[in-house]
Amino acid sequence: MKFGLSFLPDAAPDNKSASDYYRDALDMSVLADAAGLSTIKITEHYGMAYGGYCPDPLMFLVAVAQKTRQVRLMTGCLLPTFHHPVQLASRIAMADVLTNGRLDVGFARAFLPAEFDMLGIDLDESHTRFDATVAAIADLLTHGVASAETPFFSYQDVHLLPPPVQRPHPPLWAAAARSRSSFARAGERGLNLLTAFTIQSDQHLTEQIAIYQEARQDAGHAGRGRVTMLIPLFVHTDDRVARERGMAHLRRYHATWADASTSWRNRSSRAYPGYTDLHRQLEALSAQDVFENGSLVFGDPERVRDHIARLTETFDIDQILWNVDFGAMGREDAISSLSLFLERCLDHNDKTDQAAIRSEVERCEAQNVRLPRPARHMT
To answer: Model confidence over 83-107: pLDDT tens digits?
Structure first.
């Protein structure tokens, strides 16, 4: 099992400045790279506290690349429905060059009516726009010269510059969260799968992943596809404190998510069955319910290690990306939690650069952040 970090900013200027958010996320990315984690991921949103600090995941990931050496960099996700494929494919290729071929590209359909309204996009067209744009982007990245004719865009013999480093293109992923059709469509397209274990049972998610893999096989794609799961993480030396603080941060995250979803009030779309009044569904989902569902990893290092073992036994997945900054989490809690995870919840091997981890922890401590002292295996 591989591990990485997932960022979905849910902060706003009244509770955390953008400069503080980016500083903390970049510092955590450097810590993750030093510890040998696999991936850093961030998603795209607009105009609200829910994700609004990252309107451009590619720009953030290029910044991470300048401070790291080996960690993969994933958009999780870009929203192709809101972009022209020539522009987005060109920016993806440029980011792949600037990250020296470390880019993974995740796509999502978008789900907030407020964002569609901001950009003048018809909510009911989300499926067809998404499919057309992703196919056009893959074509441009693969062949370098491409043409397209759709109801949404058209072009002839466009030359993509710069060419991406990775051939035929960076690994492509699709997000699926709620519906069976989303998992099936990801498999049919031959994309890798990005999903979350926060709002559904382990049995339901296991069934959805099986649907993805069956659809992928039925469509004739080679291999089973890679599956990455997103899970909130909070670690503290005191198990009770870990649960209390983690739940407090999660409640703030859920409130921000529910507020962003109020644009679903009395609204419906044939492209989003079951989403009407989504904010009420989220308001009714308590943090305690989610915790009891087993989809949160909050606790002391021993409990976290045990929980990871259970997740590994339950799900046939390749990677977990930990949500480590939910609830506009303050710097001290976020970096302390991550440092404990890196030092005491992982089985370090000889390839892990322990000196680099210690150096980064000390750098954060020098910025007035109290962190746990290194575990014995680091000395």
So the answer is: 999 999 999 999 999 999 999 999 9
Strand segments (E) across the chain = 2-7, 39-42, 72-78, 103-107, 145-149, 154-159, 172-175, 192-196, 227-235, 297-299, 319-323
Q: Domain 2-378 adopts which CATH fold?
A: TIM Barrel (3.20.20)
Give just the sign of the alpha carbon dihedral 319, 216, 224, 93. Answer: negative
- Other Cβ atoms less than 10 A from the Cβ of 379: the count is 8
Q: Are 115 and 46 in contact (CB under 8 A)?
A: yes
Percent of the chain with pLDDT over 90: 79
Burial (CB < 10 A; 0-12, 13-18, 19+), residue 159, is exposed
Residue in this structure with the two tokens 């981890």, named with its chain if needed: 357
- 353 or 68, which is more confident? 68
Which of these, 73, 44, 41, 40, lies nearest to 56 by C-alpha position?
44
Contact status, residue 212 vs residue 185, Cβ threshold 8 Å: no
Q: Are 136 and 148 in contact (CB under 8 A)?
A: yes
Quick: pLDDT tens for 146-192: 999 999 999 999 999 999 999 999 999 999 987 888 999 999 999 99
What are the tokens at 334?
Answer: 């976020």
Question: Residue 4 corresponds to which amino acid?
Answer: G
Q: Are strands 103-107 and 145-149 parallel, antiparallel or unpaired?
A: unpaired
Relative orientation angle of helices 85-98 and 57-67, to the nearest 10 degrees: 10
CA contacts within 13 A on the Cβ side of 223: 8
Return contacts of 53-59, CB within 8 angstroms, 24+ apart.
53/9, 53/11, 53/18, 53/21, 53/22, 54/7, 54/8, 54/9, 58/91, 58/92, 58/94, 58/95
Residue 31 binned pLDDT confidence (cut-offs 50, 70, 90): very high
State pTM to two decimals. Answer: 0.91
Which residues are CB-neighbours of 205 under 8 A, at least 6 positions away? 195, 197, 315
Do residues 361 and 34 make contact, with C-beta atoms less than 8 angstroms apart? no
| Residue bearing tokens 């569904």 | 281
- Compute the average pLDDT of residues 9-21: 96
DSSP helix/strand/coil, 175 = strand
